[in-house]
Structure formats: C-alpha cells, structure tokens
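A favour, since you know our structure tokens better than I do. Would you make up a two-line entry for one protein for me to read? Write everything out right here, beneath this request.
=====
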Amino acid sequence: MTRFRIHALGVRTWPDFVRVAEKHHGVWGGCWCVSFHRAPRGGGVWGAGTSPKSRRQLKERLVRAHRSHAALVYDGADVVGWCQFGPLAELPARMGGPTRLGLAPPDWRITCFFVDRDHRKEGVASAALAGALRMIAIRGGGTVDAYPSETRGKPTAGSFLWGGTVSMFETAGFRTIAALGTSKVVMRKSVKSGAESPMGNGGRRRP
C-alpha cells in the first residue's frame, strides 16, 4: 500500500474525483456515488433528480457543503478508487435491513467502493478502507458498519462487489454481526478516537 497516497474527498480534490468518475460514465450506471445519500422511501436530498447530470450536481453540492466523505486513493496524480463513508445523517439510505434485524445503529457507515477498471486487483480497495478508518479515527471514532459480500467459494462478478468483501473487512478487524440475505452480511468494528489504524494516527474531533 506504500504505492498509494490517500486524500479526503473535498473541494480541493473534487476535480480529481470528477476525472475518474467521468472516465467511468458516472460510475455504477451513472450513480455518481449519491445513492446512499438519498433519504429512505425514495426521497431525494437537496432536490436530487434521477439523471446522471443531476446526480453529479448533487454530489458537488454535498462535497462543497462537507456532507460527503470518502477516502480517495491516488496513484501518482490520478484517483484510482475510493471508499465512501459517513454518519447516518449523511448516508441514510438502505438502513431497512439492519433495522429489521434489531441492530443498534452505528456511528458511521462504510457504504461503497469504486476501483478504476485499469487498477483492479492491485489492492486499491484495501488501501481505501484503511484510509477511511484513519479518517474516522481522526473525526472521533465510534462504531463502524459495513455491508460486504461473502465471496469465498462463490464466483462473483466485480460489478456486485461495490460493498467490498468479507475477507477484506476481516483483515481490517471487522466482525460479522448479522446476515443480509444469502450473500451479504453486516460487519462492525469499533474505532477509537485518534487510535492507530492501518493508515496512521489522528486527533481531530468529528465535524
């Protein structure tokens, strides 16, 4: 992972994020990584539309308002992937499964990953996860939930791995707390404020 540098998604890094997102036509079918920002029951946030253009505009508004967080992985000058994370108020969508299972809500969620098609199987997702955990520690820590797929013994297309894999999260210290359907699970980890994570230390409080 020393090959990669990690930076937070923000106003300064927004153009780099846009460059790789446009290369992949807005990623995940034009999502622009806003699906988890949408309120429950299909409601939008800040007047979000359904077209890729409106999703891009929404993503930029959220980034400029510091309401969208991600650990961006750089290889040289280019972003080659990221891990999106945030508190529940920032990423409210798709909480129905954990709620029905009677799970206590986490402080943070890790909702999705993206890896540039030219850099897959190079450890980008693992680097992004480590970066996200460091950023969470810097922001005060707390419980962190993720929703990866169990791929061991199951051939799985990469397009279905937007939530990461169980083995990757196990390596990062997460434990499975519940199943979501036949292939996805809920995993949880407690991150201490400023604690040493796979990417280092930090001490600032959560925004």
About this structure: The beta strands are 5-8, 69-75, 78-86, 108-115, 142-146, 175-180, 184-191. The chain is about 25% helix and 25% strand.
